[in-house]
Amino acid sequence: MSDNPSNRTGTLLQRTFFASVAPRVDRGLYVDCADSTVRVERDRAVLSDGAELSTNTYFGRLAASYWQRYSDLGAVAVEFDYRCADGATLHVQLRASDISGRERPLTVHRFTGAGRACLPVPIDRFLDGGAVWFDLAAVGGEASVEAARWYAEGRRVRDRPVSVVVCTFNRPLDAVTTVGAVAADPDLAERIGAVYLVDQGTELVCRAPGFDALQASLGDRLQYLRQPNLGGSGGFSRGIFEATAAGRPVSDILVMDDDILCEPESILRMTAFAGLARKPVLVGAQMLLLSETTRVHMTAETVDLANLDCTVPPAHARRGINALKVHQEQRVVAGYNAWWSCLIPREAIDAVGLPMPYFIKWDDIEYGVRCGAAGFPTVTLPNAGVWHADFHLKDIDDWSSYFGHRNALVTAALHSAFEPSRIAAAVAERIGELIVGLKYGQAATELQATRDFLDGPLVLVDGGRRKLAEVNAARAGYPDTGLRPAADIADPPIAKAPPEPDPRFSRAVLVKRGLQQTLGRSLPGQVAIGARDAHWWHVGRFASAVVTDASQTGVRVRTFDRALALKLGRELARLCWELRRHGPQAQRAWREAVPQLTSRENWERLFTSD
User: Fold this and answer.
1) Against a cut of 0.85, is the pTM above it?
2) What is the set of active-site residues?
3) What are the pLDDT digits (tens) for 313-330?
4) Which among 386, 402, 415, 557 would be 20 to 30 A from 222, CA to CA?
């Protein structure tokens, strides 16, 4: 232990903040303290006599397991300024957890007066899981801690800046706020070589309040780019394209959504982790819910391409945990990280090329899987998170379902065995559930996506813009796709959902519901069904259902149409037969097209096309 001022010769790994910059974020994500006399600011905590405070929290912990597994660090050091009133003593206890969550003390230190402390922390018993943090207590008077920082002493991060890429479409204020959060953090700003703000909308970011100040603070590091709307894949790819152009300084790439609530500390932790990793890795932030700021969407994710599923929790991953009550102890191996915030090492981009021109949906997933196959794993770093709009408050019955289904098929063709009968069964089950659930518009949308997958890579020739218009026009012909004010609909009785079918028999239930509908055995009349209960196996029991949209902003009226259901069912059967017969040829065509589709020449053509 040293109470001399640190020369800070090492790399800053993370900072211990005691509060968020956003008032709506629960303080419990930063400190665990029930004593109302404790005063916390962003970078300072003041404890009254007898008060205690723990940083065994989401943002307070250091993810020791991940540092031990992916870096060469055997120890780190935590430094902080302290000040104690006359007669007061500050007690600082370093603590650790293991894979099962059992806690153990490491060291205890006592300070009086004022100074700066540097406490060593070993990182050597955490391979399968566990974290480290510190607890504070004031005895005999008031004591404070300020500017707590975790360092890798004597270690320098690799001398490489980070290029931040943010793409936006008609969210100018969000874009300015998100980039501004990064630019305003002095420790983080030191690591930022350039910011590529790609504007694809008509409500221009350059005209938004705060843009001029943002430009002044970043200077020539801010590259403001305008282009046609090529979706998220086109926006992110433009930034990556520019950052990796010949003559540019070599940099890692940090891609970020425009509409997140950004915790700059998470970005700093990601850059430090990437810079000290033994081998290049993709480092992603976790997603916290905007509506419920203490809840983690998923601690890590991977894919099940045989079932076209990108929401699979890998071993030890957890979905929807309350970060105030549950700590992430077990190390998890992620399959990819979504691009609400993800750092991509330059080596990976040089090895695998640019993203696929998917427009939206699965572009980040495909890229993560592609990088993993090339030897660049993804680490979804605990205690590094950003807040993103909740997925459960978004209804997927919209135009984006076309891109989600088509791009899932393409990704499966590129990165899996793509066994035709199994893929056909997955498609049959997915779209069959839509038909039985009276979601005829979405079923037609995903049938078109299946046809376009089988037709091959030419569907991506314009980056998706034409398909966006076509899908929206086609969906307008299906009344069940229209979102209507609830007040415009008579108030039918609410139908409570029965228990969910046993997953082992879900396909049998699907067939049963379809036969009941075909034979005219749907329950007569109209019912109301809430968004939480709007499962196909429930909605499909009724002749008509007024279903609340997941956004809670309106309703959709779904009504059984025998002729339409049979038409869509026949088309589904035909396409599944084609998948069985022509799936291998489609797979070859897509795989052969990847070098051209992801080439700089193709993307440059898309960026400059009208």
Assistant:
1) yes
2) 364
3) 999 999 999 999 999 999
4) 386
